């Protein structure tokens, strides 16, 4: 007796690369939360006696400090927390909006579908960076703006994917059977369409998170996102870029952390897709 | 007897699924003489298709095979794919059940037929296309020249199956394996395809293996019929004999299941109660015992072996049953 | 079977056109409560389209479908949904008609959830269990997924789902065509049992006349989107009128007389789906009895004997 999810879980378990990547990712996430307990330094305390110190495990600053003497270990973990929060929350929002939008467009078809898709195409066509800059000029910098702009990007492709999947199952007999039973359109979309398109969606979601984190880092790098004294991996990398020659670890530590995070998510996402897609035993 | 075109000796096929081994074919032996038509009949899961997938080298990746399969004297199971490819598609061909999925949807019919000659006979595309058109005419596809340029989805089910049959005959094969060739088709088209196969046999005198779950369909075409159940052969006999006087209870029940348009009308349709055994089951005694109207204790504990059944006239026959039906 | 009173289902000149292809070219017939009507035809004859058009799963271009007096094609979506509880369907591909992500128990319970108002979970499970037992599968199967079952078992589940609300009409669209011959009888017998217990009328669609023979009261024969013959069962088999019906009868495979073909054989099909011509009889290209008139005038469906209708210019000649 097995469900399709159990089957997928079993396949995933036998994929060492995906499992390894998942473990790495979970460890990194755990680190961002419990890490500060290991090292008492706060990310915003300025330690004037150890300005731009090299990373050294014996000293109090394991990853060194930056130009202002702030402990890089604490700052990196804080930055990671912010990046992850933004990444996961924005992904979740884009997932919900995208799935709903795509399933409705795909199932209803006809003029509704056309209209809904034109809206997506228009939004995709907007040059997003200029849009964000424009909004920043008008409303000033804020984290809410960051979430908004990232959210505006994330759901578009998700909606397209879900719509495509919905179109491919729309004519299946179990959908016909549901209509013949008298199910309302809402019920059909929620109980019959969405559970059957979820496979590629989940996979795409795991690949969306790194994308969104990158985008946030990019915006922050440009100075449009997270502001001082808060940090995100993006802002830290921006700082580090300026110190590259003199104190390379200020760039390498957050950069390495980000790279590791993205890599593990991507590998896990690949494994997940294989697990959900496989048709042979 | 001359070298049989196909000689299967003690063939066993197992599949490994999630760590467990499932037996699909258990020690099956059969022979197909040159020009003979042998029908293999059985329900889904009886293993009838897997025997020939093994012969064609088309088994899934998790299959393990035991035994021998010889085609025109040469062993098939041990050969490399490259060598196997010289035989497959030219001397040993297969027709599949659903012509919609076994024809490449994005290639024209003509291309698919011509491809066989180009690959196996090193013909030029021009020659191959002419041969393809002639073949379509031979399999009675109307407007053959126009059909050459059509895609599979533009043809009806019956025409697609004719095209598939044509494809299998391009290189004048010694043996054609037809796996449920009429199951996906309407009753009227079934009759036409059976007629076509009969005509092609008469013209080309190739051997034919007909795999089906329907005794009614093979009745008009087979010289010999083998009945399979749960991976084993339970009866084999000349077609006329088997249909007139089945010995194995399973065969007898199968014959009763064919609804007719003549004869008395039934209030309830006869059927075989229960399900055919799952591919993995390995019961102690006879696999058919749970559904057999004649089963006794001996049947449940001791598996009957395929034995020659004493018969007065006609070709040899065998039955694997402790209490065969003897009328 | 009661033919007095109003018919349960009255179809009037139903027409369905897909792109350039006329799938249904004006079909009319009645169906009475409790009766079983067999609808026979080849692929492309329009029989599946008819089933779907009646249930409004496919849009009809013209015609009316009167269900107990109301036109299904004209009513609004909400009314239609509530009427659906009495009009159910069993599909040809048993596995495809079940949602792979829902347990079979949930699939069977769905009509109850939609139509039977608010029911407690326990009550629902009870009824699903009862239905599973009724179709021979056992209540323990409730938590399993469709892919764990064989074709015949999936069809039983589909039947359980369709019959759980005891509909007035059950449309069966080739329900046994994809099953082994040995299992076909089980499923047909199950349908007959359920029908007898709940008095459901049945429209049984098939391309196999032999199966239809054993369970229908009346038989409709379709060709190229039109009805070509309508007759009580015994009359159709004893004295078929339309040349197409006779050809169908001769094509049924039989183990006892493999070489005998009763009646005139069908000439090879011309290829793509039989076209519904507006001019003349659509069957003329394959008919052994075609004459000049067949090419110019569409033969109307006429009552040739009591309760026996045929659409053929030469039908009087064929009536014994």
Description of the molecule:
The complex is a heterotrimer of chains A (281), B (327) and C (320). With 281 residues, chain A is mainly alpha-helical. Chain A has helices at residues 4-13, 16-38, 72-108, 110-125, 128-139, 143-169, 173-180, 185-221, 233-242, 249-277. Chain A has one domain (20-31, 72-277): MetI-like fold. Chain B is globular and about 65 Å long. In chain B, strand 7 (175-179), helix 8 and strand 8 form a beta-alpha-beta unit. In chain B, the strands form 2 sheets. Chain B has an 8-stranded mixed β-sheet, sandwiched between helices. A 4-stranded antiparallel β-sheet of chain B has the order 2-1-4-5. By secondary structure, chain B is an alpha/beta fold. Chain C is α/β, with parallel strands linked by helices and 320 residues long. Chain C has a single domain (9-95, 164-318), classed as 3-Layer(aba) Sandwich (Rossmann fold), CATH 3.40.50.300. Chain C has helices spanning 47-54, 77-83, 104-115, 121-134, 151-163, 181-198, 209-213, 233-238, 243-251, 292-296, 315-318; strands at residues 9-18, 21-31, 36-40, 62-67, 70-71, 87-90, 169-173, 201-206, 218-223, 226-232, 302-305, 308-310. Chain C starts with 8 loop residues before the first strand and ends with a helix. The chains are: A mainly alpha (281), B alpha/beta (327), C alpha/beta (320). Chains B and C meet through helix 7, helix 8, helix 9 and helix 11 of B and helix 5, helix 6, helix 7 and helix 9 of C.
Give a quick rundown of the structure.
The complex is a heterotrimer of chains A (281), B (327) and C (320). Chain A is an all-alpha fold.
Low-confidence sequence ranges of chain C: 257-264
CATH superfamily of chain C: P-loop containing nucleotide triphosphate hydrolases
> How far from one another are the termini of chain B?
31 Å
Low-confidence stretches of chain B: none
- The helix/strand class of chain B is alpha/beta
Key phrases:
heterotrimer, A: 281 residues, mainly alpha, MetI-like fold, 74% helix, globular, B: 327 residues, alpha/beta, Rossmann fold, 8-stranded mixed beta sheet, 4-stranded antiparallel beta sheet, 12 helices, 12 strands, 32% helix
């Amino acid at each position: 007796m097995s469900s399709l999810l159990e089957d997928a879980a079993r396949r995933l378990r036998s994929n060492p690369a995906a499992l390894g990547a998942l473990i790495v990712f979970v460890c990194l996430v755990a680190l961002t939360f419990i890490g500060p307990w290991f090292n008492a330094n706060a990310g915003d305390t300025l330690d004037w006696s150890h300005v731009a110190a090299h990373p050294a495990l014996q000293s109090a600053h394991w990853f060194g400090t930056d130009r202002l003497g702030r402990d890089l270990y604490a700052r990196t973990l804080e930055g990671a927390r912010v990046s992850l929060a933004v990444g996961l929350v924005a992904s979740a929002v884009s997932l919900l909006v995208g799935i709903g939008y795509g399933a409705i467009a795909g199932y209803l078809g006809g003029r509704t579908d056309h209209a809904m898709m034109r809206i997506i195409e228009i939004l995709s066509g907007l040059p997003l960076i200029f849009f964000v800059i424009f909004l920043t000029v008008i409303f000033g910098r804020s984290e809410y703006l960051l979430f908004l702009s990232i959210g505006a990007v994330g759901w578009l492709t998700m909606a397209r994917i879900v719509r495509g999947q919905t179109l491919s199952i729309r004519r299946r007999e179990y959908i016909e059977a549901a209509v013949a039973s008298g199910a309302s359109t809402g019920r059909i979309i929620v109980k019959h369409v969405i559970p059957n398109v979820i496979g590629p969606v989940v996979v795409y979601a795991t690949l969306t998170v790194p994308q969104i984190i990158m985008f946030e880092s990019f915006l922050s790098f440009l100075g449009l996102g997270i502001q001082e004294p808060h940090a995100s991996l993006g802002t830290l990398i921006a700082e580090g870029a300026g110190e590259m020659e003199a104190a390379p670890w200020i760039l390498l530590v957050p950069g390495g952390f980000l790279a590791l995070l993205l890599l593990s998510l991507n590998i896990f996402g690949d494994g997940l897709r294989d697990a959900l897609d496989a048709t042979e035993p | 007897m001359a070298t049989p075109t196909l000689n299967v000796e003690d063939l066993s096929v197992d599949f490994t699924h999630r760590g467990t081994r499932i037996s699909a074919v258990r020690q099956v032996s059969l022979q197909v003489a040159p020009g003979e038509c042998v029908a293999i009949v059985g329900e889904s899961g009886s293993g009838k298709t897997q025997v020939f997938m093994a012969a064609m080298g088309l088994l899934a990746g998790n299959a393990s095979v035991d035994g021998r399969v010889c085609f025109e004297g040469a062993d098939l199971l041990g050969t490399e794919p490259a060598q196997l490819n010289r035989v497959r598609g030219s001397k040993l061909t297969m027709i599949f059940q659903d012509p919609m999925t076994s024809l490449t949807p994005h290639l024209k019919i003509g291309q698919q037929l011509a491809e066989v000659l180009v690959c196996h006979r090193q013909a030029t595309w021009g020659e191959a296309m002419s041969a393809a058109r002639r073949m379509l005419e031979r399999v009675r596809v109307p407007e053959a020249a126009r059909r050459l340029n059509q895609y599979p989805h533009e043809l009806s089910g019956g025409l697609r199956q004719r095209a598939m049959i044509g494809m299998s005959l391009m290189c004048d094969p010694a043996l054609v394996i037809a796996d449920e060739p009429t199951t996906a088709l309407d009753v009227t088209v079934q009759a036409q395809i059976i007629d076509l196969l009969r005509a092609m046999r008469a013209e080309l005198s190739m051997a034919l293996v007909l795999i089906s779950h329907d005794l009614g369909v093979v009745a008009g075409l087979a010289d010999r019929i083998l009945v399979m159940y749960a991976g084993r052969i339970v009866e084999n006999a000349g077609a006329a004999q088997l249909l007139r006087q089945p010995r194995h209870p399973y065969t007898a029940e199968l014959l009763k299941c064919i609804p007719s348009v003549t004869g008395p009308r039934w209030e309830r349709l006869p059927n075989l109660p229960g399900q055919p055994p799952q591919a993995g089951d390995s019961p102690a005694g006879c696999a058919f015992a749970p559904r057999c109207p004649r089963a006794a204790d001996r049947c449940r504990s001791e598996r009957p072996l395929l034995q020659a059944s004493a018969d007065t006239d006609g070709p040899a026959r065998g039955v694997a049953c402790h209490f065969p039906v003897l009328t | 079977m009661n033919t007095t009173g109003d018919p349960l289902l009255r179809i009037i000149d139903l027409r369905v056109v897909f792109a350039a292809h006329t799938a249904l070219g004006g079909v009319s017939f009645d169906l009475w409560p409790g009766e079983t009507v067999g609808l026979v035809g080849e692929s492309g004859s329009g029989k599946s389209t008819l089933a779907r058009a009646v249930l409004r799963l496919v849009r009809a271009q013209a015609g009316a479908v009167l269900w107990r007096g109301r036109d299904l094609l004209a009513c609004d979506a909400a009314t239609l949904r509530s009427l659906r509880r009495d009009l159910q369907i069993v599909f040809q591909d048993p596995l495809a008609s079940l949602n792979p992500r829902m347990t079979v128990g949930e699939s069977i319970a769905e009509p109850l959830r939609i139509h039977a108002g608010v029911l407690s979970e326990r009550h629902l499970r009870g009824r699903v269990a009862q239905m599973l037992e009724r179709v021979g599968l056992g209540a323990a199967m409730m938590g399993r997924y469709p892919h764990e079952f064989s074709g015949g078992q999936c069809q039983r589940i589909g039947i359980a789902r369709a019959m759980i609300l005891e509909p007035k009409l059950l449309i069966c669209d080739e329900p046994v065509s994809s099953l082994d011959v040995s299992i076909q009888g089980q499923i047909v017998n199950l349908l007959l049992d359920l029908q007898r217990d709940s008095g459901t009328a049945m429209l049984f669609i098939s391309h196999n006349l032999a199966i239809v023979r054993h369970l229908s009261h009346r038989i409709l024969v379709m060709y190229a989107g039109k009805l070509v013959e309508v007759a009580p069962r015994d009359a159709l088999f004893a004295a078929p009128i339309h040349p197409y019906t006779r050809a169908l009868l001769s094509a049924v495979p039989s183990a006892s007389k493999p070489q005998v073909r009763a009646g005139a054989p069908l000439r090879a099909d011309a290829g793509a789906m039989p076209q519904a011509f507006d001019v003349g009889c659509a069957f003329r290209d394959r008919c052994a009895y075609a004459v000049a008139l067949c090419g110019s005038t569409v033969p109307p469906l006429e009552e040739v004997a009591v309760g026996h209708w045929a659409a053929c210019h030469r039908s009087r000649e064929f009536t014994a």
